């Protein structure tokens, strides 16, 4: 096995100044995380000099891999001109123009610094626009750390209740008032979702949906489901908010292009920052007008010291310009190759499981259940063990994947890299089969 002594030492140091030695729950690993030193293309090197093919890509945000020359140039050029101003810059206009040109549902864009912030501001925008207090979101779907958005992120089976999920706090200390203002709907269940939305209709500001929610299984929403959400939100006068923080990497016009849906508001993040912190709220002019300060205090004031900072904007522009339709076709091809390769290995080894997802995103489920939503994706103890064996064995073979089985591919990956990933996954699955 690889030497990780420098990582172990760094973690010991980190324990003294960071809670549990950690800054992001998502990157914590037992007994200690592996510390990154550098990255180039699809490869990262850790502080002990071990090299990995990076299938995490900073949790889907790096679609061009690490240290892409065009992104380095865009960011460093801007750094030399100043990294942040108490004034707007041309860069925010340019990135907004690019996004409005790509997303048919979007007239106006508002930048912030993370996906969490984008979702928070979209929910507040929906409340400001409608004058209503409640939001609806799907059970098990992750939308960042805003109190309302994280309700029912990971309820245990004991808290599931029947077909109409109850709202369950994610963080300790979540006020009951927050739970009362969140309607949790089941993903991919048209009848139950529509009926809950109708029931709370007059109080509902918006329905927040990620059409391929990573934590709820990374299975694409049925077309009928998103169409039903589109229709019933119009019926009850609530806004439909698409969270495309991740799914914008699925296609040139994002998930909304693939599903053929016009949401009222869209949240963006990750890839649009070219590797720098970013978020954006985007949508139709009339909805986005809640932010407009040109005729006095807006319905929804919004600042942000680093919102639309030009380093992020310039790197984001460079990243998005490189993402032409040919780039998306390439990502679709390599994503299909990895999914097909892993599914073939599942069949060959006889291990129950499947690789799901679309485009450059995939997730491994160690089950033969038909995964359709949070509950069917919920891991049994044995499935969790198999997943842990699989991801650890992949890591030993130099392939970095998220601990919960998510893989995000990137454009610098060559066909040879794709073969290496599939081969390592197949060998790791053989070890899972031997493990039992
Ligand atoms: N929405 C979705 C769908 C996400 O996946 C994430 C982050 N993984 C967020 C929102 C929050 O984004 P950030 O981590 O930039 O705050």
UniProtKB/TrEMBL annotation:
<keyword id="KW-0808">Transferase</keyword>
<dbReference type="InterPro" id="IPR015424">
    <property type="entry name" value="PyrdxlP-dep_Trfase"/>
</dbReference>
<comment type="similarity">
    <text>Belongs to the class-III pyridoxal-phosphate-dependent aminotransferase family.</text>
</comment>
<dbReference type="InterPro" id="IPR005814">
    <property type="entry name" value="Aminotrans_3"/>
</dbReference>
<dbReference type="GO" id="GO:0008483">
    <property type="term" value="F:transaminase activity"/>
</dbReference>
<protein>
    <submittedName>
        <fullName>Aspartate aminotransferase family protein</fullName>
    </submittedName>
</protein>
<dbReference type="InterPro" id="IPR015422">
    <property type="entry name" value="PyrdxlP-dep_Trfase_small"/>
</dbReference>
<keyword id="KW-0663">Pyridoxal phosphate</keyword>
<dbReference type="Pfam" id="PF00202">
    <property type="entry name" value="Aminotran_3"/>
</dbReference>
<dbReference type="InterPro" id="IPR015421">
    <property type="entry name" value="PyrdxlP-dep_Trfase_major"/>
</dbReference>
<keyword id="KW-0032">Aminotransferase</keyword>
